[in-house]
Amino acid sequence: MRGHASLLGAYVERNSLLHAAPLWAKFMPVATLSVLVLMLNSPFATLVGLGLVVLGYLVGARLTLRELVQPLLRMWPLILILGAFQWFRSGPETAFTVVGNIAVCVLAALLVTLTTQSQRLLDGLVFLARPLRPLGVDPERLGLTIALMLRSIPYLVGAAEDSRDAARARGLERNPRALILPVFIGAVAYAHQTGEALAARGLADSDDDG
Fold this sequence. Notes:
Elements lengths: L16 H4 L2 H18 L2 H18 L4 H10 L1 H15 L1 H23 L3 H12 L9 H31 L6 H25 L10
Helix pairs in contact: 2-6, 3-6, 5-6, 7-8, 8-9
């Protein structure tokens, strides 16, 4: 199985200002920038947002241009379809704004995960969820759920790409069954193995007695 952690912005070790910054100091500017570009919804705001994100990647996090562009390359079908639809529906200015705002939000969010170790990120989410405990939210279980999600998505993406490559090698790339069935079987097996691992550690769901 090939690695696909980069799809979600796996941690990249660097000696930079953003890597050393606490989680809240990265999350707040990212959230603020995303909200502002979506609220202003103008080409100028989008350009400024893109400029700030590029500055954050190359200067604040000392990441490479390739690490900046790679997430967009993985999203190119969505960007192409959405951009073309908006172009024909509302013109090039709207198309640029819509696609650019998506790029700003995605790249800004990934900047947090690229510069924050997964355990620190999960600990931060657990901390933020603690005020919700009176509402019945278990912060530790929430952290575990997110950790499983972050681990599962790259696996499933890799399974889909492996299935596609195997089908293409057999000349069955147009056969939905050859593409979907191996992914479905692999997903069920993966879920079963994960459930067994959780049960072995006493972390599986269980009904409380009394």
